[in-house]
């Protein structure tokens, strides 16, 4: 199987693919999930529960049940501080935010809504939690209402416990089970009050997420260097939650930053179609990023973020849109050379599907490598205690410490990852694309690709359970296999699939945690032809596993 590129990929979205927002929101309020249908139950994937009201997989009942489950969880854990709420620009996010508040207020939880009902990015929520919990008072946590870069028809909700990052599986399993019990019981046990009353509740407060985050940026990014270099910056918020943050950043820090568009449209009609013909606000997709890539020469460096602004896309005059792995390697190499106050033992965090070039960069920097399964939750504790200087995923998610070596955010932060590209350009005099070419020339230039294909839930389960013993071959693309992993070397956690490596190449196969697809990641330091051999062998292995159960 292979990824089939839609004939309209990269083209402006035609009217025929635009979601009917009124119909979508009506379904959110009117549909009721059937708990006997697996696709209509609450299921927390890599980060939160996602679905569409049009499929009865994300509607009012799901959100009310999850919100009550969170209230019960935090009460059992003694979490008595405020709960910070963020929401992005998807059509279902504002209705879901209202549902969450109705439950929080009825449960007497101090809820922190954004000032002026501003959209609130994931990193601003994580930043608020981390900042609050620096003190000695009751611990804070948060809920972010977003399906990330998913299509406009989708909604999503995720919980961030007091460490500020995505909740671990033990937490999400408990919330998921409790929420499904509420749905099975017809929401019996869910406390709720009318939205207008919830807004007036003494436990409902306003928090200026935007100003708190923007004013603190010089603690994590050298904003003076960006300003003093006078470099020209461009940003496309892709109609996401940080849409008004960028002009505030430009004004507060007096930098030459042009915002391509501040349009907010829950249909996301301004987007170009992604590889499969869907609208998807993925800043790492060359198809979704056509608008910014077309004007790259206007800027010294440009960037974009996804809908909740936890992912980044970097566009350079020298190389166009950088693959996320390329930028991660450059960012790591720069940060650990230009953050003298970071602890000497602070490690480099990467996922098992991120480029092996990061391993080589970390070795040259003499920094320990912490390799974990897919999911940013694995990085959060290390970012909180300073044990990790940087954590990054090949899917364009990253976070790193403040300049003084303390925690900034413990969830992905697309805004600071983007501004770091500006700092790198300002301080090195070359954009990250040129610096990647130099780095690859020194340490090796990997060829990489990722294949996605449809998979049923049953097929995904078989792939996730694939064991090292199922891999019979002792060679991969002409080289001896050096390792077959089903657990990450950094923490021993299951990777939910398999990774096979040789001296100069590897592949990893795993099901998506949020969509009914599987993904094969592959990389070769011997060039594109060798990469295709790896992919062909990997696909044969996956096809056999899906057909027979592995």
From TrEMBL:
GO BP, one annotated term: carbohydrate metabolic process
Identification of the protein by name: Phosphoglucomutase
Keyword Phosphoprotein in annotation: yes
Similarity comment: family membership: Belongs to the phosphohexose mutase family.
Matching PROSITE patterns: PGM_PMM
Organism: Roseateles aquatilis
Reported cofactor(s): Mg(2+)
EC number of the protein: 5.4.2.2
One of the Pfam families matching this protein, by short name: PGM_PMM_III
Example GO molecular function: phosphopentomutase activity
Entry keyword set: Isomerase, Magnesium, Metal-binding, Phosphoprotein
Transmembrane segments: none
Domain Alpha-D-phosphohexomutase alpha/beta/alpha positions: 42-180, 212-317, 324-439
Keyword Cytoplasm: no
Enzyme class, spelled out: isomerase
């Amino acid at each position: 199987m292979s990824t089939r590129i839609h004939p309209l990929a990269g083209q402006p979205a035609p009217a025929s693919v635009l979601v009917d927002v009124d119909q979508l929101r009506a379904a959110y309020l009117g549909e009721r999930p059937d708990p006997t249908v697996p696709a209509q139950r609450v299921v927390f994937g890599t980060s939160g529960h996602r679905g569409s009201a049009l499929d009865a997989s994300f509607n009012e009942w799901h959100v009310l049940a999850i919100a009550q489950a969170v209230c019960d969880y935090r009460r059992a854990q003694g979490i008595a501080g405020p709960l910070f709420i963020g929401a992005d620009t998807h059509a279902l996010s504002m209705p879901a935010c209202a549902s969450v508040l109705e439950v929080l207020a009825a449960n007497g939880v101090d809820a922190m809504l954004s000032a002026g009902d501003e959209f609130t990015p994931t990193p601003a929520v994580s930043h608020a939690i981390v900042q609050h919990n620096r003190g000695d008072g009751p611990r804070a946590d948060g809920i972010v209402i977003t399906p990330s870069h998913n299509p406009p028809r989708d909604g999503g909700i995720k919980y961030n416990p007091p460490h500020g990052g995505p909740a671990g599986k033990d937490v999400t399993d408990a919330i998921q089970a409790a929420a499904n019990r509420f749905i099975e019981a017809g929401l019996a046990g869910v406390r709720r009050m009318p939205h207008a009353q919830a807004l007036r509740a003494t436990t409902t407060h306003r928090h200026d997420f935007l100003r708190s985050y923007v004013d603190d940026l010089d603690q994590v990014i050298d904003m003076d260097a960006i300003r003093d270099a006078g470099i020209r910056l461009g940003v496309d918020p892709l109609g996401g939650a940080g849409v008004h943050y960028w002009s505030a950043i430009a004004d507060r820090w007096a930098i030459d930053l042009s915002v391509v568009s501040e349009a907010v449209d829950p249909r996301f009609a301004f987007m170009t179609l992604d590889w499969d013909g869907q609208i998807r606000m993925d800043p790492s997709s060359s198809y979704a990023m056509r608008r910014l890539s077309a004007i790259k020469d206007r800027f010294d460096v440009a960037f974009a973020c996804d809908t909740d602004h936890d992912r980044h896309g970097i566009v350079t005059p020298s190389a166009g849109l950088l693959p996320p792995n390329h930028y991660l390697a450059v960012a790591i190499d720069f940060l650990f050379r230009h953050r003298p106050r970071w602890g000497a033992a602070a490690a480099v965090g990467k996922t098992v599907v991120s480029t092996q070039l990061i391993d080589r960069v970390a070795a040259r920097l003499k920094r320990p490598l912490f390799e974990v399964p897919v999911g940013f939750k694995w990085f959060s504790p290390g970012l909180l205690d300073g044990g990790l200087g940087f954590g990054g995923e090949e899917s364009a998610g990253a976070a790193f410490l403040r300049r003084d070596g303390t925690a900034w955010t413990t969830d992905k932060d697309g805004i600071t990852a983007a501004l770091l590209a500006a700092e790198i350009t300002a301080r090195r005099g070359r954009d990250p694309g040129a610096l990647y070419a130099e780095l690859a020339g020194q340490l090796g230039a990997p060829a990489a690709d990722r294949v996605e294909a449809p998979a049923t839930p049953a097929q995904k389960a078989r792939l996730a359970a694939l064991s090292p013993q199922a891999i019979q071959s002792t060679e991969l693309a002409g080289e001896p296999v050096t390792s077959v992993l089903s657990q990450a070397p950094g923490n021993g956690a299951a990777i939910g699939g398999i990774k096979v490596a040789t001296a100069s190449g590897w592949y990893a196969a795993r099901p998506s945690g949020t969509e009914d697809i599987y993904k094969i990641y592959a990389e070769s330091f011997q060039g594109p032809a060798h990469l295709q051999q790896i992919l062909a062998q990997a696909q044969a292995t996956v096809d056999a596993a899906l057909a027979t159960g592995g």
